[in-house]
Design brief:
The protein is an alpha+beta fold. It folds into four domains: 10-95, no CATH class; 108-152 and 163-276, 2-Layer Sandwich (Heat Shock Protein 90); 283-367, Winged helix-like DNA-binding domain superfamily/Winged helix DNA-binding domain (Arc Repressor Mutant, subunit A), CATH 1.10.10; 397-481, Arc Repressor Mutant, subunit A, CATH 1.10.10. The protein contains 19 helices and 14 strands. The protein has helices at 10-16, 35-38, 41-54, 65-71, 87-93, 96-102, 135-149, 170-183, 226-234, 244-254, 283-289, 299-311, 316-323, 327-340, 358-364, 404-411, 419-432, 437-444, 448-460, and strands at residues 75-77, 83-85, 108-113, 126-131, 152-155, 163-166, 192-196, 200-206, 261-265, 270-276, 343-346, 353-356, 464-466, 479-481. A hairpin with a 5-residue loop joins strand 1 and strand 2 (83-85). Helix 13 (316-323) packs across helix 14.
């Protein structure tokens, strides 16, 4: 564009060729599918039942199955009068077996991780539930799985009976799940991941937002999959007005929870929604903020400091998201906190982020639990290591903590290894445990900038992902291998 180079996503290329009659991915005709053999009747009935509840006089209720699928754009009519499902028909109405055969990565992974970071303990990584099915039946299953696992509070509204309710409003979870499945990029062979940490819920889906970051939450919806969006809208599962993000923000604030944080990454073609699952500005947070009262913090600044306490860093985008302000307002506020010494600025330009200053770091010491109660008796640990090979001569001392097979692979890599071999080694290391760029450079005996170049390629190829996607320039940023799907 002009004299500059601009990286384009697949969606940008589609827009460039739109005038030439380019078909959307959801319109792809799947000749290997059959309406009689591969369409799930329960999914079609689910659509009819939802439409009947919304509009009992809807004309499509009287149509045959083939006419209905054709009208919805989920099947095409052949010259001999038969019908062939499209990609939209596969996603919305196909049987699980057809989905597994044609699009094995089109599924939702619900992952539970102990702690606040991805795979803190390599011995206890995570628990996962893999869900697959047509969207009309999959969406309710995913919503139910998430709501059943969230912390719950109780309410006694207009009743003497206790009523358990999710801490995060169920309407927020509904909106988040529907948006992830409706707006995801189905060209990308990657599942939607819903990751449940001890303090937050992350929903990660392939496909960046088609709206600019500063327009998220404003009226107007830009749909990547317009036929899927229309079907979900007609079933009252989704709105197509662009109000979903604003609704989530208002409902979270009404529940006294932190505003949702949105991270759209065009380079990685991904979108991440983060929901804190505990009360924002609870009694402990307010007591902790008392240490900064001499700075006369605004409500927006207070929210920013609590966010920093939870995530370890804050950027302009994060400040805008949690406080619903524009870029100039966020920049001025962060600059003011930096000038007072509460924050320390790191990075430059678009890569700028902020960490806590010395006083902020000291304030966190009161939150560290006492360790006096730990027992010094470690006699129960086994010292029998005879089964391990000790023939590791020539290996860096940093490799002694790695499994033998992995350590030998790194040792055999050499200094003149081909780029592919180096990238494969990085993937293997990050699959064993999340690692920082510095740690990878030390283990592989490479320069950090060289490792950084490899990481950029692997992230773009969706073979690596960030442990802290909310703050890409996090000072303690680590990388993990993307989990490849198994059988559902």
């Amino acid at each position: 564009i002009g004299s500059s180079d601009q990286s384009c996503t697949e969606d940008d290329i589609v827009l460039l060729y739109q005038g030439r009659g380019h078909k959307a991915y959801e319109d792809l005709v799947l000749d290997e599918l059959s309406i009689d053999l591969d369409i799930a009747e329960e999914a079609v009935q689910s659509y009819r039942q939802r439409r009947e509840r919304i509009n009992p006089a809807a004309p499509e209720l009287t149509w045959t199955r083939e006419d209905l699928l054709f009208a919805l754009g989920t099947a095409t009519r052949n010259v001999n009068g038969t019908y062939t499902p499209t990609m939209c028909g596969l996603l919305c109405f196909a049987k699980d077996a057809a989905l597994r055969r044609i699009a094995p990565m089109v599924r939702v992974d619900y992952i539970r991780v102990a702690g606040r970071a991805w795979v803190e303990n390599p011995d206890a990584r995570f628990e996962t539930i893999e869900m697959r099915g047509p969207l009309l039946t999959l969406i309710p299953r995913v919503i139910a799985a998430v709501l059943d696992d969230l912390p719950r509070a109780f309410a006694m509204e207009d009743s003497v009976y206790r009523k358990d309710v999710p801490l995060v409003p169920d309407a927020v979870i509904r909106e988040a799940v529907v948006n992830a499945l409706m707006h995801r990029n189905y060209r990308t062979r990657q599942p939607v991941q819903i990751i449940r940490y001890s303090n937050r819920l992350e929903i990660r889906n392939p496909g960046c937002s088609l709206k600019p970051d500063d327009q998220l939450g404003e009226a107007g919806s830009v749909n990547r999959n317009e036929k899927i969006a229309a079907i979900l809208h007609e079933c009252n599962l989704a709105e197509t007005k662009g109000s979903g993000i604003r609704v989530m923000q208002e409902l979270m604030e009404r529940a006294n929870l932190s505003s949702p944080f949105f991270e759209s990454n065009r380079d990685a073609d991904s979108f991440v929604l983060t929901l804190l699952t505990h009360h924002f500005m609870d009694a402990d947070d307010i007591a902790w903020l008392e240490q900064f009262k001499h700075y006369h913090l605004s409500a927006e600044d207070a929210r920013a400091l609590v966010f920093l306490k939870e995530f370890g860093a804050i950027s302009n985008a994060a400040y805008r998201s949690i406080n619903k302000v524009d870029t100039l307002h966020a920049s001025a506020a962060l600059r003011r906190l930096r000038n007072t010494g509460v924050l320390i600025q790191k990075g430059k330009g678009m890569a700028t982020y902020y960490q806590g200053g010395p006083e902020f770091v000291r304030s966190l010491e009161s939150l560290v639990p006492k360790l006096d109660g730990l027992s010094p008796n470690l006699g129960g640990l086994s010292s029998n290591l005879e089964g391990l090979s000790t023939n590791l001569e020539g290996l860096s001392p940093n490799l002694t903590v790695l499994p033998l097979e992995l350590a030998e692979m790194v040792a055999n890599l050499g200094l003149r290894a081909k780029p592919k071999a180096s990238r494969d080694a990085i993937i293997a290391l990050c699959n064993y445990s999340s690692m920082s760029k510095r740690e990878l450079a030390r283990v592989l005996n490479r320069r950090e900038d060289t490792i950084g170049d490899f990481i950029k390629v692997l992230v773009a190829e969706k073979r690596l992902e960030l442990v802290y996607p909310d703050v890409p320039n996090h000072p303690d940023q680590r990388y993990r291998a993307v989990v490849k799907g198994g059988d559902a």
